[in-house]
Each structure stands twice: as C-alpha cells, then as structure tokens.
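seq as requested:
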Amino acid sequence: MDEAIHFIQRYEKTLALYLFSEDRRVQQAVLERVSFGGCINDTLMHITMPYLPIGGVGQSGFGAYHGKASFDAFSHYKSILKQTTVWDIAVRYPNYPKALQWVKRLLK
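struct tokens:
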C-alpha cells in the first residue's frame, strides 16, 4: 500500500481515485495521504449523488460541479445592501457621544 501511495504522490494531483478494499486501515491511509475525489468500493455511484460535487484541482481541472455545486460554481453572487432613508440611527456617526463604544457593543 505504501508503494501505491508513493506512486500516486509523485504527481501533483489526481482527478479521481477508486479504491477497492474492505480494510478500514487501508481506506483511512489512502484518505489521509492522497488528495483525491472518487469512490471507495465503487466506480459510478458518486455521479448519481447530486449532493457530491465533482471536479478537480491543479492540473486535474478546476472547481466542483454537479447538482447544486454546479449552480454555485458557475454563478456570481452579487451582494447588495439597500438601506432605507426614512430614518437614520445617529449612533452610526463619529460625532455621536460614545459612538465607538455603542458600535462595538452592537457588533459583539
């Protein structure tokens, strides 16, 4: 097993790895020492799981896609805060007495 792990580690990143072993020590050793995505004791079931994103890192590809992860990977979130002008809180401004202490208290 050490020889196989060392062989895999010679390369920058592996896109996928499919390990077939019932030995929990072997499974754990590979999970801890090799950077990969894939399956243990299967080759195709992960593609049917929309909750498991698929994708590579480094030379093996980029990002994670599949199911919701596809939407997240290929979407750009646009953050907008729309503040009302109807009323304002004076404590937000530096000339308010002890404004910094009030803001720190609010942010805790």
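The radius of gyration is 25 Å.
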